[in-house]
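Troubleshooting: if your tokenizer reports a length mismatch, compare your output against this known-good record of 93 residues.
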Amino acid sequence: MNSMDKMSAILLVLVLVTSFVVIIVRHENRLAFVQLQKHEEIRDQLQTRWGQLMLEKATWAMEHNIAEDAGTRLGMSTPPPDKIITVQLGKPD
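Known-good structure output:
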């Protein structure tokens, strides 16, 4: 085998090895991209849930503020049980 044949054989092996490396890297890249999309979907779901919780927190805080304002600024308080009157509505005819 002359040196030209050896060089061709080495180049052929290098081309094959490089091709396999490219295939492996592209496959790993696809897997990583799929995983990234899954993580982004989970992130979006968590952000949506966080927004819902913040809205709920604001709602509870507003109700607390209303009750507090009624007591402090307006002097209102919950009446004792003997002062509470329940009104029953009749069925409409």
